[in-house]
Amino acid sequence: MNKETLKYIITDFHENKLPATKARSIKLPLKAKGSAEADPEINKIISLVGVRRSGKTFLFYHTIRSLIKNGVDKKNIIYINFEDDRLFPIELSQMNLILKAYHELYPDKVDEKKYLFFDEIQVVDNWEKYIRRIHDTENARICITGSSSQLLSRDISTSLRGRSISYEITPLTFREHLNFKEVSIKKYSRKAEAQIRHEFNEYLEYGGFPEIVLADDKIIKGKILREYVDLIQYKDMVERYNVQNQFLLKTLLKFCFTHPANLISVNKLYNDFKSQGISLSKNTLYEYLEYMQESFIISLNPKYSDSIRKQQQKPKKLYIIDNSLMLPFVSSKKINIGYRLENCVFRNLYKMYENIYYYANKYEVDFVVEDHGGLEIFNVSDNIEERDTRLREINSLKKARERFPNAKLNLVINQYQKIEDKEINCLSVIDFLLKEDKKDI
Q: Which residue, of 226, 297, 350, 376, has the fewest CB within 10 Å?
């Protein structure tokens, strides 16, 4: 990396148009003076983390567009993608050239506030030393992203020592999906309702990765998804963690991506894989599952218990980051629709609540969520037209009320039908997924 090359890269950014972007529900705490575009500005390094291809870079572009719209001179903004081949190789000692090159281009900007957007910063070894220094010494707001395989929340909090705030960027919510597809939400319109139902069926199958949502051809969607799975396996797992047993990893990924909303037992997995002739240990399984959680690929939901020890001993319930990751392994027609629905509901709850559990005794409820001392209980069902199904869902919620006396009961249904029970809040899965604030449930 040299100063002259950096001048070209900085100038290219200032002269070229920003790529087209779509608004996300998340807004970063960056704004021009007097703007109401975001939450109050805070003097923290902003880091975006999350599964790859979830839209971190395009959130940068959208934030930059918003800053410019609200009065920030584009020349006060520096965007650098550290995977730009013109910069290779990059050493920590060369990072100081960025602002030197910028100030030589714009000497009148030396004392002005700058906005620095550094993409894929993990390419630079010991990058955090440079970021800490300019945060402490420059009049600048700093935003960074990194590949989920090499820049995790725990890495950032350790490296930046209280100077940062992290935002987890996930694939699109259903409301964001509708926004990307330019579908309006209208009440009392059969045409709008039919269009939203069509989009929901697409979302249920193909998930919320932005590139997949905007692709029209199903064959292309399939090719992109297979590429994603390969990237997850080799970039997020093999390279970062130096995984030796790649066959076991591939088998475990396939199991997880095809068994969402199921209990997962390491003992059972160990015996199943061993019977298939796979060489492994239980410790290796635990490690690989932990790697997958750290890379945002899966979530393992614990059983509700007053005892942390018992909670750790019980099997956890598996959820995946996006429904689309099932498709490279199995036809959507062979995937239980109830599991897909439950996975979608979990992902929406995950954005609203910090503490999510399942509960099972002689009965089972899908989710128990905890918020400021209060509890809400959720069951998810495809259809409750059949009497036995309806009674099972309702009775399990009411039985759970005996364990959690003050909890609010919710039944989320795909094919919506009303129930004559005032104790239970019954809502369609579409209505539920359009609610991105827990106060609206």
A: 226
